Amino acid sequence: MSLQPAGAVAWWRDLQPDSARNRSGDRAALARLRRCATVAEAMQDQATIALFRRCGGSKPWDLPAVALAAAVMAHVREDDPAEPRIARRIGPDSTDKPETALLKPLRFRRLMEADTPDERLTAFRRLVALVSGRLNVPDLAAALLLRWDEERQRRWVYDYWNAGQPTATASPHTEETSP
Questions:
Q1: 114 and 123 in contact (C-beta within 8 Å)?
Q2: How many domains does the chain have?
Q3: Greatest pairwise CA separation for the chain in angstroms
Q4: Is the alpha carbon torsion for 143, 149, 151, 156 positive or negative?
Q5: Could you tell me the CATH number of the domain that includes residue 28?
Q6: Could you report the per-residue pLDDT of 22-50, keeping only the tens digit for each?
Q7: Dihedral in degrees, nearest 10, Cα atoms 99, 154, 142, 161
Q8: At what angle do helices 63-73 and 137-145 cross, to 10 degrees?
Q9: Nearest-angstrom CA–CA distance, 124 and 118
């Protein structure tokens, strides 16, 4: 059985203070998780264990992914359902304008190449900071809890570069003449 991102979304919502719904949330848990320097440290927090249970974790090897999710999601302040794909939100407007990306191509590359849970923790926390703590929580939960494999990375690269959209460059059939 794999971890369930929907459980992480519900866990995140329960921790968030919401004065409109008269919910105080759990600010102390959020603060503790924000201060965790490593995934190993986050694994030891009781809020991470609560997330583990809500996501359907059942094996010890599920714990690092859950701790990573807890430590990163604690930095998210607001869900952004308007942009369902995080990689598209942080990517450039077009492939010929990489400077327009919120997460510059070099940092995006580091995110894609992050191997260890602690490297991913650093990279994803930077990502959350760059979007001022506002991004699509279900997409983030899936990226953190589900396997960060070649298929998921391929999808992020595709979305980041907006590969499905044609560019506004000149037609390949036009020829330039020199004066």
A1: yes
A2: 1
A3: 72
A4: positive
A5: 1.10.520.40
A6: 788 999 999 999 999 999 999 999 999 99
A7: 20
A8: 150
A9: 10
Q: What tokens were used for 83?
A: 């942009």
Whole-angstrom distance, CA of residue 150 vs CA of residue 138: 20
Considering the entire predicted model, what is its pTM? Answer: 0.88
For residue 25, the surrounding DSSP H or E stretch is none
Residue 118 lies in a domain: yes
Burial of 75 (C-beta count, 10 Å sphere; 0-12/13-18/19+):
middle
Please give the Cα distance from 134 to 176 (Å, whole number): 45
Whether 117 contacts 173, CB under 8 Å: no
> Is residue 178 included in any domain, yes or no?
no
**Is 138 part of any domain?**
yes
Q: How far apart are CA 47 and CA 44, in angstroms?
A: 9
Residue type, 163: A
Domain region containing 67: 5-160
